[in-house]
Amino acid sequence: MARTNFQYEKRQRELEKKRKAEEKARRKAEGKHEGGEGAEGEGGEGGEAAVQDPGTGQPGEPAPQNA
Length: 67
What we know:
Layout: H1 6-43, H2 46-49
């Protein structure tokens, strides 16, 4: 009967843990990066450019009243 190679299995588990930790760190860095951009744009001049009429797509025009 063949014996299991414990060192190989341990190394594979270590590599899997390392890969997951790197993936988690990458996602955390992306989330931090995205969160930083949104916070800067809200208080500054970027807020005015974000106002658009969904019907015409022209910035600064009020939305049409359909009543």
